[in-house]
Amino acid sequence: IRSVQLPRVRSISMNGFVEGGQYRDPSGGATWYPNYHRYDKMSDIVNPPPSKLFVFVDEHPDSINDGWMITDVTNPRNWTDLPAHYHNGACGFSFADGHAEIKKWLDSGTFVPVLKQGRNGFPTTQTRDTTWVI
């Protein structure tokens, strides 16, 4: 089947563990990571606190494949979805308490060139950046 490639129209994604992302399984956990907490309402945001839980992030253009960004909470050596780095090696995050931050990336594995092709899964040998996001 032939398809037409269209230009990207957005670069912002929502945290996949915040309402609207990771679909709830019958036990109330996140579908892909059942032992990891999902946040359905503000009162659920306790650990981490609202000042540490990102809600929106600027996502790498080749990583955007849906409306949310998911991080592999079981493997810090893999970005499932990759944050952007094209703001002078940094990325914008907004948090559940309403503040925003620009995160300057430290690990070379976070600097993946834009190839204009969809990907899912970005292995890395360093974990400072993935651990900060998780």
Could you characterize what this model shows?
The chain has one helix and seven strands; from the N terminus they run E-E-E-E-E-E-E-H. With 134 residues, it is mainly β. The chain has one domain. It has a five-stranded mixed β-sheet with strand order 3-1-2-5-6, with no helix packed on it. Strands 4-7 form a two-stranded antiparallel sheet. The radius of gyration is 15 Å and the shape is globular. The N and C termini lie far apart (38 Å). 25% of the residues are buried.
Beta-strand segment tally? 7
SSE topology string? EEEEEEEH
Spans with pLDDT under 50 lasting ≥5 residues?
none
Strand content range: 15-25%
Amino-to-carboxy terminus distance? 38 Å
Helix content: under 10%
Overall pLDDT metric: 86
Query: What is the alpha-carbon Rg in Å?
Result: 15 Å
**Structural domain tally:** 1
User: What composes the largest sheet?
Assistant: 5 strands, mixed
Helix/strand/pairing category:
mainly beta
Name the overall outline. globular
Order of adjacent strands in the largest pleated sheet: 3-1-2-5-6
